[in-house]
Structures are given as C-alpha cells and as structure tokens.
Amino acid sequence: MDAPHSIDLPNAQTVLKTGKTYARDLAERVVSTGLQAGLGAVVVTRPFDLGMWEAAGLAGIAASLSLVKGLVARWRDVTNSASLAKGV
User: How far apart are CA 59 and CA 54, in angstroms?
Assistant: First the structure.
C-alpha cells in the first residue's frame, strides 16, 4: 500500500505577501496606464476636437481595460504579477 501524498501549501504569511505584491503591481499598472492615456488624450484633443471631459473619459476607459487585463492575468496563471507574459 502506498503512503499518502502530502500536499505542500504555502503558509498564510506567504499568501498574504504574494497577494500584496500582486495588488501593488496591478495598482501601479492601472495608474500608469491612466496617466499615459490621459497624456495621450490631451495630445489628440486638438486634432479631433475633443473636449477635456471626453479626453478624461478615454483615459478612464484605458485604465479600466488595464485593470481587467491584470485581473485576467492573475486568473489565467497564478503569479505575483499582473502581466500576461510567462514568468513575470
């Protein structure tokens, strides 16, 4: 008869630490995407005759999509990163 297999689970401290790392990574990506999109929207407001609030809305949409991408990355492959790249 075979010996029962042991299950190696991380301790609670490791789980909290990796979750905190992931959350910080995701927050940084969302904020930077929002800022980058905002800057880009400001640049295109003149040629496309967009208002300030329309440009801000575009930046918000970009940041929201960044958040969704980061959550999908976490759901797809359990890592400490919000990146879709393997091994990050």
Answer: 9
